[in-house]
UniProtKB/TrEMBL annotation:
Pfam families: SRP54 (PF00448), SRP54_N (PF02881). Keywords: Cell membrane, Cytoplasm, GTP-binding, Hydrolase, Membrane, Nucleotide-binding, Receptor. It is a peripheral membrane protein. Its EC number is 3.6.5.4. Belongs to the GTP-binding SRP family. FtsY subfamily. One of its GO terms (cellular component) is plasma membrane. This is Signal recognition particle receptor FtsY.
């Protein structure tokens, strides 16, 4: 079976035709290889379904078998809205850490209030453990922390408030695990054929956790770091998701590949986004998904197909699971299913600004063995921060 036929079977020919991948793509492949063209968007890349205009506030929907329209940057209309300049990325968590308290006092401050009592009774230790459990630290890590603190306070006699605080900081940082590799794989890769491919980041998670918002914020992080980005709106389930994503992209001049049909095949859109990123020489392609969690088999089908189709064009650099930090144990259950189905490489914990349950960072890493790489600390466009263990714990301690 030749490569094209195999690919069409994988995606599903009828759906492809419906979103406009079919004819144009097949014709191009049959007509001979299309050399990838490293460079910037606007260099003449071609994709079957995308209409790319980085300056457009909302990108026009693709039409069946439409040729791509790429608006050259030099010919952008004079009235195009000014692009926003995202905030620098370095030090974001330190700047935003005041938001970690949620509506109450930070977890660390509550622990310190008990630890600084004159004589710690059994009830005090129980209270400490309960505080950790209520902050979603998880039973195992909570018990470990209490045991360590008891030893230090009772046996080694650590009593002076500054020393107790330093001890708590050290133990919490160890639980969050500063040794984990939290870097995002966003560098383009060179395939076995010697050709350059964009880094492809697939963003998964149940509805409402903040996937689309996170993709939009992450695009800004990457733009701030000087990367060229293409967005893929493979959340074809929710009608407004593609529009929402295109708006995020347009604010920073990032094109969005989307279908003009609600309910289009997400795998076809994901494929087109990666193909567009490849053809235009983009550094990174971010693919948003719907990831409805009706059942594991359905999810496996949908995400499995998206992953198969993407990896025919470029290797998958990251699968980021977006979890809503306010959902506690339920979020952990979801995380388990996604980790099994999609091979998650990093966690994005959103809405940490809306909760005093920052301990979920510890629990989710323990549960999945996957690092938290980014955290969402608000609804603002630059309220997404690379995770850093020490800055996070300092936020929990209310420093
Ligand atoms: N407070 C707060 N709100 C957030 C954060 N991240 C996302 N949100 C909000 O969460 C809501 C849902 O976000 P979406 O990005 O639409 O969620 P989604 O996962 O794409 O949802 P579906 O498309 O339905 O699957 C929006 O109101 C966001 O503004 C965050 O870090 N903090």
């Amino acid at each position: 079976m030749n490569e094209t036929l195999e690919l069409l079977l994988a995606i599903g020919l009828p759906t492809l035709a419906a979103v406009g991948v079919g004819a144009a793509f097949v014709a191009r492949r049959r007509g001979g290889p299309t050399p990838p063209t490293p460079g910037r968007p606007g260099d003449g890349g071609r994709a079957a379904t995308a209409v790319l205009d980085p300056a457009a506030p909302a990108l026009a929907a693709p039409t069946a078998a439409a040729a791509v329209e790429v608006a050259p940057e030099a010919e952008a209309p004079a009235a195009a809205p000014a692009l926003e300049v995202p905030e620098p990325v370095v030090g974001r968590l330190a700047r935003l850490r005041g938001r970690l308290a949620g509506s109450g006092s930070p977890l660390g401050a509550r622990l310190l209030a008990v630890l600084s009592r004159d004589h710690l009774t059994e009830d005090d230790w129980d209270e400490l453990e309960e505080t950790l459990l209520l902050a979603d630290v998880g039973a195992g890590p909570s018990a470990e922390l209490i045991a360590d603190l008891r030893t230090a306070v009772r046996v080694a006699g650590v009593r002076e408030p500054a020393a107790v605080r330093a001890l708590l900081r050290e133990k919490l940082i160890a639980l969050v695990d500063p040794a984990l590799d939290r870097s995002l794989a966003t560098a383009p890769v060179i395939g076995a054929d010697g050709l350059r491919r964009p880094a492809v980041l697939l963003v998964v998670g149940v509805n409402g956790t903040g996937k689309t918002t996170t993709v939009g914020k992450l695009a800004r992080v990457l733009v701030a770091q000087g990367s060229t980005v293409v967005l893929g709106a493979a959340d074809t389930f929710r009608a407004a998701a593609a529009e929402q994503l295109a708006t995020w992209g347009a604010r920073v001049g990032v094109p969005t590949v989307r279908s003009d049909r609600d309910g289009a095949d997400p795998a076809a859109v994901a494929f087109d986004a990666v193909r567009t990123g490849r053809d235009t020489g983009a550094d990174v392609v971010l693919v948003d998904t719907a990831g409805r969690l009706q059942n594991k088999a359905g999810l496996m089908d949908e995400l499995g197909k998206i992953i198969r189709v993407i990896t025919r064009e470029a290797p998958l650099s990251e699968v980021l699971l977006v979890l809503d930090a306010t959902t506690g144990q339920n979020g952990l259950n979801q995380a388990r299913v996604f980790a099994e189905v999609a091979g998650v490489t990093g966690i994005v914990l959103t809405k940490l600004d809306g909760t005093a349950k920052g301990g979920i960072v510890i629990a989710v890493q323990r549960e999945l063995g996957v690092p938290v790489k980014l955290i969402g600390l608000g609804e603002g466009p630059d309220d997404l921060a690379p995770f850093d263990a020490a800055a996070f714990v300092d936020g929990l301690l209310g420093d």
